[in-house]
Amino acid sequence: MNIQEAWAYGRLQLAHASSFPDLDARLLLEYLLQVGHSFLVAYGEKDLTLEQELGYRQFIQRAKQKEPIPYITGMAQFYGLDICVNPSVLIPRPETEQLVECALAWAKSRQPLQAVDVGTGSGCIAVCLAKHLPRAGIFATDISSEALEVARKNAAQYVPGRVGFYEGNLLTPFPAEADLIIANLPYVSRDEWTMVDDGVKWYEPTIALIGGSDGLDLISELLQQAMSKLRPGGAIFLEVGWQQGQAVVQLARKRFPSADVALIADYAGQDRIVSICTG
Ligand SMILES: C[S@@+](CC[C@H](N)C(=O)[O-])C[C@H]1O[C@@H](n2cnc3c(N)ncnc32)[C@H](O)[C@@H]1O
Judging by DSSP bridges, how do beta strands 230-239 and 178-183 pair with one another? Predict the structure, then answer.
């Protein structure tokens, strides 16, 4: 089997299992051979070794069972970085890049400052903040020790010594006050959970996804905790479910009545970020 044949085999096998069979087959082949897209195109007639062919067939079988590609390759792209992932962390999503962008736009001119990423998972948000805010103290919390292990690994690779990690419930383990609180917390409701894609439901950690019966348990608790942890003039940026914007705005106004609370739409026009600026 040569590269072209392997790619075609992968594409065909994934035709019903994936929304992007061609892309997924290619990414697995690139990962297996440790090459880029252009190599596959230029050397399409190069034969795979028997070992490579067996390895590729195994990857394709895993993807066919709906295992997300980043869990197979151990890597997900986020804000221009290759972030290490495993099944104890949520795979970073493109919409979260916009959350990072909004927070950076607020924070860049306000350095030095202290920022905390609540529910850090793979550490993707904290790592980006540390990379783009060189004069900020960056901290991150998560309730999952396994997730923190992955986050520490990513921070060590990209921003060694820059992120302080704390294990525990939301802001509780963070011993100080912060100017910036950023969080992409679990926000899937019980009803929505039944409609979530199988690949997500079967492989991604439920603790990273379900936010109680209406999806708002953790966001609501965080806002309450933030009342005593956010410095005057500080800001909170939250990623929310596309139908939760107004509900989170109400919660935020209740906790921070004099703050400027805004709903920010994603590139698809859906409300996905709530910003709460107290300054
Ligand atoms: C939706 S994931 C987000 C991960 C990462 N920040 C991202 O954007 O890809 C939510 C994270 O919150 C963590 N989490 C869930 N409940 C928590 C709690 N009570 N306190 C702190 N972290 C929590 C989960 O372990 C998970 O890593």
Answer: parallel
Q: What mean pLDDT value characterizes the chain?
A: 97
Residue 227 C-alpha to ligand 1 middle, in angstroms? Answer: 20
Output the CA 90–ligand 1 centroid distance in Å.
Answer: 8
Residues forming beta bridges with residue 183, ordered by sequence position: 118, 238
- Whether 9 and 99 map to the same domain: the answer is no
What pLDDT is attached to residue 268? 85
Domain shared by 130 and 265, yes or no:
yes
Are 89 and 165 found together in one domain? yes
pLDDT tens profile 61-83: 999 999 999 999 999 999 999 99
Q: Which amino acid is at 31?
A: Y
pLDDT exceeds 90 at position 279: no
Interatomic CA distance for residues 47 and 108, integer angstroms: 50
Q: Decide: pTM greater than 0.90.
A: yes
Q: Give me the domain span that covers residue 190.
A: 84-277
Identify whether residues 57 and 96 lie together within a single domain. no
Closest CA to 91 of 191, 203, 229: 203
Q: By alpha-carbon position, which residue is closest to atom 7 of ligand 1? A: 92
Ligand 1 centroid to 259 CA: how many Å?
25
